[in-house]
Write a structure and sequence with these properties.
The protein has 158 residues and is of the alpha+beta class. α1 packs across α3 and α4 crosses α5. It starts with a helix and ends with a helix.
Length: 158
């Protein structure tokens, strides 16, 4: 039952990051889970052999040496940022690697991924660029008419 649940969960997950959590207290783990949950990220500690079976069945291997927790969520950059931020707050957390859109990443690549703009940030900058370009085009189109109106206004006054 647990294996089937994990298979279905990780089959649909776009990204997950593996971290070692050895050395953090129960209170710290609870605080971490609460913080991650507020960001839409799950922090799961499951027996390594069960997770390994689930991921192997999906064709996704994992770095399981020592106690491993899995952080997963919809936005790969947000999950990577949360993992890196967690490591910064608590040195006992060690980045092990990740799966992002079917690719296996090492710990260094997780850090690099965390530095990229998130999906909402990227969409915002694209929308901003599109709106800015449209405004500049409209301004260029209306500029001759504005100059003509200004010249007529000046002629009418003078």
């Amino acid at each position: 039952m647990m294996l089937d649940h994990l298979k279905s969960r990780y089959a649909s997950a776009k990204s997950f990051v593996f971290v070692e959590y050895r050395g953090i207290s129960a209170e710290e783990a609870h605080a971490l889970r609460t913080e991650l949950r507020s960001q839409g990220i799950r922090f799961t500690v499951v027996k390594n052999s069960i997770v390994a079976l689930a991921l192997d069945a999906l064709g996704k291997g994992a770095p399981f040496h020592g106690p491993t927790a899995i952080m997963d969520g919809e936005d790969p950059v947000a999950v990577a940022r949360a993992a890196v931020a967690s490591r910064r707050k608590n040195k006992a957390i060690v980045l092990k690697g990740a799966h992002v859109d079917g690719k296996v990443l090492g710990a260094e690549e997780v850090v690099e991924l965390s530095r990229l703009p998130s999906r909402p940030e990227m969409l915002g900058s694209i929308a901003s660029a599109a709106v800015g370009a449209g405004a500049r085009l409209l301004s260029a189109i209306l500029a001759p008419a504005s100059r003509l109106a200004g010249a007529i206004d000046t002629k009418a006054e003078g």
